[in-house]
Structure formats: structure tokens, C-alpha cells
Amino acid sequence: MTILNINGKSRKTRLPPDTPLLWLLRDELGLTGTKFGCGISMCGACTVHMDGQPVRACVTPISAAEGKAIVTIEAIAQDAVGKKVQDAWLDLCVPQCGYCQSGQIMAATALLKQKPQPDDADIDKAMSGNICRCGTYPRIRAAIKQAAAKTEVQP
């Protein structure tokens, strides 16, 4: 049995340790905000935070998540920065189809937690690999900048 910390709660699973974290989240725990896109870590739809770092749940085995704090889109608003990012997404009507947006929000939140005032190059680097088939990239960038403007810089 494996015990994982997911969204601040202890969760037990008997799934094999090489099972991708994505399948535990979606199929076992019903946390369907994390999406399956490509299954090979190329699209970013399955992005979650592991100890504050963005990771692709589709290729991260459950065994790699043991002893780490996992945060999914369902709990990102409990984080002050995550809440600002979600608010900016809503304010600017970022989603079109919305399928990729949970991964986009998770990546943007991780960026702003590491670099509260990113420039365009920082945004490009952090969001690289998060694919939006609808092409909402200009609104994603604007939302990141809006959330950054509302995020205090720590000395």
C-alpha cells in the first residue's frame, strides 16, 4: 500500500507503484480537473505540483510521489498565488475550450511562486510545453501578467 499527500489529505492506494499519478488522481480519487492529453509529457494538460514544482502526472509514477505534497487544480485556489492566477484567468476570459487550462494554471502558478514578477522570456520558458489547441496564448500571457501585478514581491 502506498500513502500519498494529495491536496493536504492523506490518500491510500493499492495501485502498482509504477502506475502514473494521473490515473490515481482521475480514476481512483475522482480528481478529474487534471486532464489526460498526450500521455508522453508533451502537452501539459496533466500538470500538477509536487512539492511546489510542476510535474506531468501522466509520466510520474505513484512511487515518485510518495512522501511529497501533491497539489491539483482542485486545491490551487487554497494557495494565495494560485487564487490570483485563477482570478486573472476568469477576469480575462482565458479559456476557449478549456481542456488545457488546468495545466496552464498549474504551470503559471508555479512560475509566479518562483518568480513573482516574470518577464516575457520567463513566461515563455515556464509555459513552454503547455499546449493550447485553441491558441489562447495571448490571453494566458496577459493573465499571468495580471496575476503578477497583484502578487507582492518578497524581499
UniProtKB/TrEMBL annotation:
Indicate yes or no for the key word Iron-sulfur: yes
2Fe-2S ferredoxin-type domain residues? 1-76
Arranged from A to Z, the UniProt key words for this protein are: 2Fe-2S, Iron, Iron-sulfur, Metal-binding
In terms of CDD domains, this protein maps to: fer2 (cd00207)
InterPro entries for the chain: 2Fe-2S-bd, 2Fe-2S-bd_dom_sf, 2Fe-2S_ferredoxin-like_sf, 2Fe-2S_ferredoxin-type, Beta-grasp_dom_sf, Diverse_Oxidoreductases
**What Pfam family does this protein match (any one)?**
Fer2
Which top-level group of life is the source organism from? Bacteria
| Listed SUPFAM superfamilies | 2Fe-2S ferredoxin-like, CO dehydrogenase ISP C-domain like
The keyword Metal-binding appears for this protein: yes
| Name recorded for this polypeptide | (2Fe-2S)-binding protein
Source taxonomy lineage? Bacteria, Pseudomonadati, Pseudomonadota, Gammaproteobacteria, Methylococcales
